């Protein structure tokens, strides 16, 4: 795995160490897909990320919760390399892709051209077609973005991420603007794609149930740091009706400052890392969003 190493000098200058990418050892080695140490991000006088430490293992599915304004997008943008960090160290894979709440498609480019936009790869159209097929949109490869539904447009954005074969897939509330039914189907799709491609995933969400349904670990960001790191070891597919699920949900809601009457005595979360889930077979024909 190629890594981009970003660090900041004592004078605050970003040191670009990506010119000679380091080769990470295979999964199983202590090396991680993401390794952040003392990572800080300031906007003027405001410290948003405050000496944050974070490890994500290759292939691990992480959900990140936190109050509005807690810095989730700031962290995601730093991991994506879209913003410079103010200080600290950050190690991420070279192959990264991000999907945001809005699909960010170029309206003057057909779906398949959006998928391979900015890439100079052989057989671009065929690669785009394959990626669109993976998200169940082979039949819309020539569609203009303006003719796509919200769910379809988001799937094109996913295809655009996939075609980059990311080792780190960054998702910033990608389902937030979708209706409930489309959201459920997107959950299934994202899990299936994750199993097939096995990137590390960081999913930012406000939806506690979504986090517990999907992730290996759920993190809570507060005060510029990761204040909780809950391992979710329930088998997938998970059910919100399940007692263990509800217990974790209650813990998370309490951590997020939501007042709850019931189950106030739920045990506090513990901090520990988990290995990636084993890959499972995937059948795309199950999806028709
Ligand atoms: N470019 C910027 N310049 C100045 N301040 C910024 C900038 N980007 C973000 N901030 C501030 O950083 C803080 C964290 O913003 P961020 O978007 O990361 O929060 P968030 O956790 O993603 O919130 P939400 O859940 O509402 O999306 C906010 O106070 C925001 O105003
Ligand atoms: Mg945000």
From TrEMBL:
<keyword id="KW-0472">Membrane</keyword>
<dbReference type="InterPro" id="IPR050166">
    <property type="entry name" value="ABC_transporter_ATP-bind"/>
</dbReference>
<dbReference type="Pfam" id="PF00005">
    <property type="entry name" value="ABC_tran"/>
</dbReference>
<keyword id="KW-0067">ATP-binding</keyword>
<dbReference type="InterPro" id="IPR027417">
    <property type="entry name" value="P-loop_NTPase"/>
</dbReference>
<comment type="similarity">
    <text>Belongs to the ABC transporter superfamily.</text>
</comment>
<keyword id="KW-1003">Cell membrane</keyword>
<protein>
    <submittedName>
        <fullName>ABC transporter ATP-binding protein</fullName>
    </submittedName>
</protein>
<feature type="region of interest" description="Disordered">
    <location>
        <begin position="1"/>
        <end position="31"/>
    </location>
</feature>
<dbReference type="GO" id="GO:0005524">
    <property type="term" value="F:ATP binding"/>
</dbReference>
<feature type="compositionally biased region" description="Polar residues">
    <location>
        <begin position="1"/>
        <end position="10"/>
    </location>
</feature>
<keyword id="KW-0547">Nucleotide-binding</keyword>
<feature type="domain" description="ABC transporter">
    <location>
        <begin position="34"/>
        <end position="248"/>
    </location>
</feature>
<dbReference type="InterPro" id="IPR003593">
    <property type="entry name" value="AAA+_ATPase"/>
</dbReference>
<keyword id="KW-1278">Translocase</keyword>
<keyword id="KW-0813">Transport</keyword>
<dbReference type="InterPro" id="IPR003439">
    <property type="entry name" value="ABC_transporter-like_ATP-bd"/>
</dbReference>
<dbReference type="InterPro" id="IPR017871">
    <property type="entry name" value="ABC_transporter-like_CS"/>
</dbReference>
